[in-house]
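**Backbone description:**
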Amino acid sequence: MSRPDDIFALTGLQAPPLSGAKVRLNSTYGSPADYAQAIDELRAVFPPEDVSTDPAVLDAHGRLAGYNESFPHSVVVVPRSTEDVVRIVNISRKYRVPVVAYGGGTSLEGHFYGTDAKGICVDMSAMSKVLELHEADADLVCQAGAKWTDINAVLKEKGIPLFFPLDPAIGASIGGMISTGCSGTNAVRYGTAKGEWFLNATVVLPSGEVIKTRRRSRKCSAGFDTLRLFLGAEGTLGIMTEVTIRLAPLLPTRVAVVQFPSVEHATRASIEALNYGVNLQCIELLDALTMKTLNAYEARTWPEKDSLFIKIQGATPAFIEESARILRAVAEKHGGTDFEFAATEAQAEELWLARKNSFYAGYAMFPGAKAVETDVWSASLSA
């Protein structure tokens, strides 16, 4: 096993804090000459197209639109196998260069950002294959760079009535979703990454060792759940290369949009609908300003009111209709108007696309703005 300072060198746990003030690089890291040697060795091990120090590439992998301070990495490396990741980790440890794993690059919180210590960015995008599909067991093995949207597209193309329900940003990768403990609009029905959606993983540790967190067996009382150590660890404990995920039945859904006189009214309606037991898959609040940005971004014109975007899910049309009836009654009780249900799948996709576009619509209306992630208890909004 590696010494503690080796672990720090890989994960950046001792990196200097991000601030506007000029800071000195932590002595745990290598010297500029060490960094240069590390890059030379990476170039000797990997094909030229898989190692880049191009400023544009470094910048694209080191920052996004979030508010956190960020810096470009020293080098971006694209592994294509677990063995490649081991090689990168061993080189980083040898020269004491920090490593940051890069999945889909969709994080607003800055999980893949570079720091003023710079270092090696491990771009997992080339490790995106679906390796095994076990329909009878409702699970799937994929490489960590696979995107949840692509996995669901593969299942749909094969006509398999299953899907992976966690749905953070479009383009998020499975490895990144585990590392950040992701959520998504489906969390109302299916929970977050902290649920049992990730069954096991192959992980390259800071020492360069490769472990598998558990076997495929769904029920096993022996030992502790090692995968939980890596869930939400943001890459500080290792880099995942393969993951087994659990799939859910793909049930029929209906999409609805309803407007309210205020955020408080919309929040009270959502709380009552959830507590009433309406079988909701998603319920998302877009305030009046967000609806205004959508009108400037999309061809469709929306009422510029505080609105709920809702998905109802059920095994039968009768079940969905009953849930819709209850939901409509609850919404009207709290001042809901213009209750719109999608009649077809195409209409449902159009309605829900507005929810997915809301982030980009906000940026389009306020160029140069920074994204700030917030979490507020729904009961607090209704106060």
